[in-house]
Write a structure and sequence with these properties.
359 residues; 2 domains; three-stranded antiparallel sheet; 3 strands; 66% helix; flat; transmembrane; transmembrane helix; Peroxisomal membrane protein; membrane; Mpv17_PMP22
């Protein structure tokens, strides 16, 4: 043993102290330089490499400038942040080193990709929504402004704007004569889409961050069901109450706000639930709890509007007037229909996160 020590190129006096004691060596300044401009990191590194007296001797130092990673003090490892896989992480001058409690470190990259991805998806959704709104608005205004484009030769801007409302109304009446059901379906689809968009904005969502799928569902129900069913309902109501006396108007309003409102509110609620792929048990349970609140909410609006519907407006024009009022009513309907579903999804997500955290 003495011969081995004598033949070693290092003097016997150069011995390592105890496990928590690391001698000053040429590697320390280089590590301090790696720490960059952060004073807190430098202090932590100095504290880890601080020289202290040791009562016992250890093995011979392998060579100048080399520090065994297993000699890193346990105190430093306890101070390092722990990664989810059970290791520790050391950040020196922007370089991330990761490893387990034995001191084996490997280089790793910094996170943040998830947050960046979420931000990118949000910007993409906002861009798509903006394109939808601007595209639909541009198309609608173009159709309204160019109704007389075949007769514009020699017209002034004043003449175009002057005749535009009258000729658009004439085009609408012509569409009612040609295909009344399709014309009313188109109007109801647009109104129900706009109504759901207004409802989402009323619930606190930014104007261009609306739920496109939810708005499409509402518009689909308005297009496929409300326009066609309302067309036949108003003709049925006239045949059921063919009287022209003044008392026929409140009777029609009462019938509308009991039988027809209850039927249509239920159809809207149930169809939206199936379009959200909810179970029939869930749909009918939520319908049962919201049926009377939806019905009584309509009594605050529709009786006054229907005095005009059944007292003034002709049968063929009633749906257009009703759809104008529907912009307010669909906001209420959509809020009632979606708030319980969204609350249930939020509760389920919160419960899932709690279970994952408890594990």
């Amino acid at each position: 043993m003495a011969a081995a020590v004598a033949s070693s190129p290092f003097p016997a006096s150069r011995r390592l102290p105890s496990k928590n004691h690391i001698p000053a060596c040429p590697a320390a300044p280089s590590l301090l330089r790696l720490a960059g401009g952060s004073s807190s990191r430098r202090r932590r590194l100095r504290r880890a490499l601080r020289v202290s007296a040791a009562p016992e001797e250890a093995d011979v130092l392998p060579g100048p400038g080399v520090i065994e990673l297993e000699m890193v003090s346990a105190g430093l490892l306890e101070e390092l942040p722990v990664d989810p896989l059970g290791g520790s992480q050391l950040d020196i001058g922007g370089l991330a080193f990761q490893g387990d409690v034995t001191g084996g470190f490997t280089s790793g990259g910094s996170g943040g990709a998830g947050a960046g991805g979420d931000g990118g998806n949000k910007m993409l959704d906002r861009g798509i929504n903006t394109a939808i709104v601007l595209g639909a608005s541009t198309y609608a205004l173009t159709k309204l402004l160019t109704v007389d484009q075949d007769y514009w030769h020699g017209w002034t801007i004043f003449e175009i704007l002057r005749y535009m409302p009258e000729h658009n109304w004439s085009a609408y009446e012509e569409a009612l004569k040609t295909n009344p059901v399709l014309a009313k379906m188109m109007i109801s689809g647009v109104v129900y889409s706009l109504g759901d968009w207004i409802a989402q904005c009323y619930e606190g969502k930014p104007i261009f961050e609306f739920d496109r799928t939810r708005m499409f569902r509402s518009g689909l129900v308005g297009f496929t069901l409300h326009g066609s069913l309302s067309h036949y309902y108003y003709h049925f109501c006239e045949s059921l109450f063919p009287f022209k006396d003044w008392w026929a108007v409140p009777v029609k309003v009462a019938f509308d706000q009991t039988a027809w409102s209850a039927l249509w509110n239920s159809i809207y609620f149930v169809v939206l639930g199936f379009l959200r792929f909810e179970s029939p048990v869930t749909i009918f349970s939520e319908l049962k709890s919201t049926f009377f609140p939806m019905l009584t909410a309509g009594w605050k609006l529709w009786p006054f509007a229907h005095l005009i519907t059944y007292g003034v407006v002709p049968v063929e024009q009633r749906l257009l007037w009703v759809d104008c009022v529907e912009l307010i009513w669909v906001t209420i309907l959509s809020t009632y229909s979606n708030e319980k579903s969204e609350a249930r999804i939020s509760d389920a997500s919160t419960s899932t996160d709690s279970q994952d955290n408890s594990r």
